[in-house]
Design brief:
The chain is α+β, with helices and mostly antiparallel strands and 246 residues long. It contains five helices and four strands. Strand 2, helix 4 and strand 3 form a beta-alpha-beta unit. The N and C termini lie far apart (127 Å).
């Protein structure tokens, strides 16, 4: 009876020693892993290996003593590495899906922006052509005068806004006089009228290189001296636009 009790006591002592050894080794390994951090995949794998080895070492120590610790360490490390790789794959799949969704949203936004740009270009081209085909402005002057009347200031303001929006437009200023007076005087007068209008546009920020002045004198007059009201239409500056080289 006493011999049996002694044998049981010895076995209990061996089990306790194996358990303590496994716990100590496992604790050391898991403590090392905890300090390693998880900054990247290699660190995460190493951490899982150490943690797996620690758990395996504890279990191996309980079951098989020192040999069990070695086997448990190896098996636990392999298991931990597999878990880390599986986690990394899952994380990569999540990030890939998020990237694909973001990329799809960006492509959609790009297509929408391209459509808006194309629409803007189409509208702008139509307005530009309309200004070339359908716009002209007549500015009338009093007899023998090159002074611009106040009522044309607002029209020139709006015109300058359009010209700044369409810098490719060429601006033509053709100046005319009625049939009264000498040809030399009328030519000089129409040159002054054209220059006054050009200076008004320059004061509004329009580059003079875009402007082309042509004084016609009385050469293009339509009304005779017997029609004083009609001659008022001859005393004018005509503005119109063209595209391309002049």
């Amino acid at each position: 009876m006493d011999g049996a009790l002694d044998q049981m006591a010895k076995q209990e002592s061996v089990v306790k020693k194996q358990l303590m050894m496994g716990v100590i080794v496992g604790s050391l390994l898991m403590g090392t892993a905890a300090g390693a951090g998880a900054g990247d995949l290699n660190k995460q794998i190493a951490q899982r290996e150490w943690q797996g080895a620690g758990v395996g070492g504890v279990l191996g120590g309980i079951v098989g003593g020192p040999p069990g610790i070695i086997i448990g360490l190896a098996g636990g490390a392999l298991f931990g590495r597999g878990e880390a790789l599986e986690d990394a794959v899952q994380q990569a799949q999540v990030e890939t899906k998020q990237y694909q969704e973001s990329l799809a949203e960006l492509k959609l936004a790009q297509r929408q922006l391209e459509n808006q740009i194309e629409r803007y270009r189409e509208i702008r081209a139509n307005r530009l052509q309309a200004m070339v085909d359908g716009f002209s402005l007549n500015i009338h002057f009093r007899t023998k005068s090159a002074m611009l009347e106040q009522r044309y200031q607002q029209q020139l303001d709006r015109l300058a806004d359009s010209l700044r929006a369409f810098p490719e437009l060429n601006i033509h200023i053709d100046a005319f006089a009625d049939v009264r007076g000498q040809s030399g005087f009328n030519h000089q007068l129409t040159e002054q009228r054209a220059l006054v209008v050009q200076r008004q546009l320059a004061a509004r920020g329009i580059n003079g290189a875009r402007i082309h002045r042509v004084p016609h004198g009385e050469a293009a007059a339509d009304y005779l001296p017997q029609d004083p009201e009609g001659m008022g239409f001859d005393r004018r500056v005509l503005l119109y636009f063209t595209l391309g080289d002049v």
